[in-house]
Amino acid sequence: MSAPPTFDEAFRRSLRDLFAWRRDVRRFRTDPVPEATLRACLDEAHLSPSVGNSQPWRFVRVADPGRRAGVAASFARCNSDAALGYAPERAARYRALKLAGLREAPVHLAVFCDADTEAGHGLGRATMPEMLRYSVVGAVQTLWLAARARGLGVGWVSILEPEAVTALLDVPASWHLVAYLCLGWPVEEHADPELARHGWQARGPLDLTER
């Protein structure tokens, strides 16, 4: 057996700071991210837990300009349609928000769940097959924290057409898009969420229910 590391109070304070400063970034510098830095973040994401040790995450680095443009076009369509679903005052506020850094971010990562993976032999998925996708979400969060610990920012773009993006990236049919991430160096640093800062939605208190 290996001796576990000791996580002291100083580490716990730093860890809480990391959680607090893990912001959804939409404003990126165009400076490139060193390949070794990106790889270190991905390697740490691969340490994430997964149902049955299935490791169903599949990372696709989107580097082709044409494919990036297609993703940006999908975002533009969905973003325009989303604004139409709000009353006029809220719609105006929505349109004023910057909701993606697709044009500026040096790294685009599409994160898929491989629904047909044989790894894990189906353990833990018979009653809750969605655990595969939840495992991918856990890997995304680990990647996010690993990037933030290195000064990088990550933005999760969900205002997209999953089927269109999947087709655009030409991946296996069993892969389901879970996250489209922009990654790079932030233009500015803020401890508070951008949506709270710009008046869209304040962060609420923890809601803990007991039964």
Summarize this structure briefly:
It comes from Methylobacterium hispanicum. This protein has 211 residues and is of the alpha+beta class.
Beta-strand share of residues: 5-15%
CA-based shape: globular
Which parts are unreliable, with pLDDT below 50 for 5 consecutive residues or more? none
Largest sheet strand order: 1-2-4-3
Number of strands: 4
Can you write the helix and strand succession as a string? HHEHHEHEHEH
Q: State Rg.
A: 19 Å
The biggest sheet, with number of strands, parallel, antiparallel or mixed sense and barrel status, is: 4 strands, antiparallel
Helix content, binned percent: 25-40%
Oligomer: single chain
Overall mean pLDDT: 95
Alpha-carbon distance between the two ends: 38 Å
The number of distinct helices, counting runs of at least 4 residues, comes to: 7
- The class by helix and strand makeup works out as alpha+beta
InterPro entries: BluB, Nitroreductase, Nitroreductase-like, Nitroreductase/BluB
Organism: Methylobacterium hispanicum
GO molecular function: oxidoreductase activity
Protein name: 5,6-dimethylbenzimidazole synthase
List the helices and strands and how they pair.
Layout: H1 9-20, H2 35-45, E1 57-61, H3 65-83, H4 88-96, E2 107-114, H5 131-149, E3 153-156, H6 162-169, E4 175-184, H7 194-197
Antiparallel strand pairs: 1-2, 2-4, 3-4
Helix pairs in contact: 2-5, 3-6
Domain Nitroreductase: 20-185
GO molecular function: oxidoreductase activity
Protein name: 5,6-dimethylbenzimidazole synthase
